[in-house]
Amino acid sequence: MTTTPPSTITPRTTATSLPLVGTAKPSAAADRGRVHAEQASKRVRALLGGQVVVDTIRPVLVWEGPHYPVYYVPRQDVLAALEPNGKTVRSPSRGDAVRHDVVIGDHRAPDAAGTYPDSPIAEFQDLVRIDWAAMDTWLEEDEIVYGHARNPYHRVDILSSSRHVTVEIDGVTVADSVRPVILFESGLRPRYYLPLTDVRTDLLLPSDSATHCPYKGTAGYYSVRVNGTVHQDVVWIYRTPLAESIRIAGLVCFYDEKVDLFVDGAHT
Q1: Could you tell me the pTM of the whole model?
Q2: Whether 153 contacts 143, CB under 8 Å
Q3: In angstroms, rounded to a whole number, what is the distance separating the alpha carbons of residues 44 and 192?
Q4: Residue 105 within a domain
Q5: Mean pLDDT (whole number) for 15-21
Q6: Domain range for residue 110?
């Protein structure tokens, strides 16, 4: 591994090549050729096959798109071998990414890392991007992170409400509640979590599907059978959410875009 001292990225940098992230979501076209990066202070680790691939207290958060950041880490803090595989990927902002297989012990993650040795942004030249999905586990400090790196500007508010929420599928009322818990998440539509006692549980079919969220944890799913038709994975539940989202534990949420959801009589 290189012994070159790590480059630094000043927090909330205003350099032309690293513009500040605004409160509004930038469009893909507007952000083409631009990137925002910030020095983070959490300890970040990535594991593959039970072995530590990355262990750093100098991660850099890089917004490759408007929704959430990706961790880039100093090359010195990558404990696995990075074997070039002959591939390159062009980025209009970061330059050519030299692609690598990540190898540690008997474990190999093909095409799982990128480096930017000739990046036009000098701070990126000694950083490594390890693909999130290629690793078995990611940790921020000593806690597992699900799905992707947390966005420090992302907020989740969970509020009890007395709004009247009804859910219909194919004209059949499958939920009716005046005690929803509403989850407001930055940049997303509100989600209405309902007690199971206010839901037609006789219509629910357990599903093997699962999704992962760094703010809420792991969601399980139900499908709904109505009028002989199965509507796949239109309901989710966080049975054991992360501590910050504990108020939605055991409540169910309908996928608004796939059902007819009414709040105080108005269709959402």
Answers
A1: 0.74
A2: no
A3: 33
A4: yes
A5: 33
A6: 28-144
